[in-house]
Amino acid sequence: MHRILLPCLPFLLAADWPQHLGSNRDGHSSETGLSRAWPKDGPPVLWKRNVGTGWAGPAIAGDRLILFHRVGGNDTVECLNPTTGKEIWKATYASRYVDDFNFDDGPRAVPLIADKRVFTLGADGSLRAWNLETGVGIWDRNVNKDYGVEKGFFGTATSPMIASGKLIINVGAKGAGVVAFDPATGKELWKSSDDGVSYSSPVVGKLGDEELAIFFTRNGLLALSPDKGEVKYRYPWRPRINASVNAATPIVSGGRVFLSTSYGTGAVVLEVKRGKLEEVWMGDKSISSHYPTPVLIKDHLYGIDGRQEGGQAQLRCVEWATGKVQWAEKQFGCAGLIAVDGLLIACAENGDIVLIEPSTERYKELARARVLDSPVRALPALSGGKLFVRDGKKLLAIGVGKN
Questions:
Q1: Which of 299, 306, 376, 379 is the most buried (most CB within 10 A)?
Q2: Whole-angstrom Cα distance, residue 403 to residue 400?
């Protein structure tokens, strides 16, 4: 059992985690001052809070933590103090989403905190904006109903993104594959493409000479100008079987973009040459990301290879330039990953949190602790020397700063 403590943490360089995969949507945190070793029974649990269902990880900005979950028949947005776990405000609305596979009826998408607002996207397509300070609803609309989107395998799970002052989402309808909304009013600003919706969340990155909104849709790579929605690049990349998902977020670095999925398809790295996307490397032997997104540390990818089912997924280190596998840790299982302060933190599906040195030579585990109950599918968050992790029943704040 973990002790529930409120220790005084030393000074750290703290950073927000205001959206999917952190400030830059790449799984990296700029925090420093983290511990390289944990006590025998694991790092201290600073606070614990019971939660409802859902797979949405928390988002943190300053003294506000946003928890998006389902309690009974209501999707619930709660604002908590990240230091104490105490509630600041709570807002609810009725949800009729029922998962076809009886996995979970709660929301999946990580909330977005931007411009003193909170944006949430429920599993039924309910897109809403809230006042960050008070929790008052600003606007709401249901994108699945508005654009005639059919219910997917596991509900709506893509996390919203702000780019060029617009709230941009892979909606997935004909003529409205990607839609940009006014963050202040929810009004449609532009719509583009026929691409179906995936479970991946978009990023902003530079391809060629432009900063673009980059999506891994149901069809593959779609790169658009965030200002007007003009399609700049496409690249088909999806499994052949219909019963499949694209879920990992694209990774953009040095003018190249990485996509990965499972189901015998694998990964591809692309770059712009002579005005079009060309393959740098591709195939199913390097890394096939079923759900979790890898992190790029210097010139190597660290990520989960293999299907979530069956417990056979591996943690791998792969060379960014070539796709060469440097090492693989078998039966690691699926995990959300955070790169921070020269370390790699994994929140595994079995309930373990794992501290890893991101070596290119071999797998180097520094510490491990069981803190949650399986299955864990919500992404972790890191802010103020605290690791925030949740399963289907509880949210924990864990002290990972130096004691």
A1: 379
A2: 8
Q: Which one, of 108, 215, 192, lies nearest residue 156 by Cα?
A: 108
The rounded distance, in Å, linking the Cα atoms of 346 and 353 is 6
Over residues 329-376, the pLDDT tens digits come to 999 999 999 999 999 999 999 999 999 999 999 999 999 999 999 999
- Cβ–Cβ under 8 Å, residues 128 and 179: no
The alpha carbon of 190 is separated from its chain's Cα centroid by a whole number of angstroms, namely 25
The candidate with the shortest Cα–Cα distance to 109, out of 378, 385, 363, is 378
DSSP 143: H
For 63-175, where are the E strands, in sequence order? 64-71, 74-80, 87-94, 112-114, 117-121, 126-131, 137-142, 161-163, 166-173
- pTM score, whole prediction: 0.95
Domains of the chain by start residue, with CATH: 28-399 (2.130.10.10)
190 to 181, 218, 226, 228, 263: CA distances (angstroms): 7, 20, 10, 7, 33
148-152, 382-386, 392-396: segment of lowest average pLDDT: 148-152
Convert the pLDDT of each residue in 201-236 to its tens digit: 999 999 999 999 999 999 999 999 999 999 999 999
Q: Residue 326: is its pLDDT beyond 80?
A: yes
Cα separation, 310 vs 333, in Å, equals: 9
Say which residue the tokens 């609803």 belong to. Answer: 137
Among left, alpha and beta (phi > 0; psi -120 to 50; other), residue 272 is beta
Token readout for 387 is 């690791």
**Contact between 356 and 346 (Cβ < 8 Å):** yes
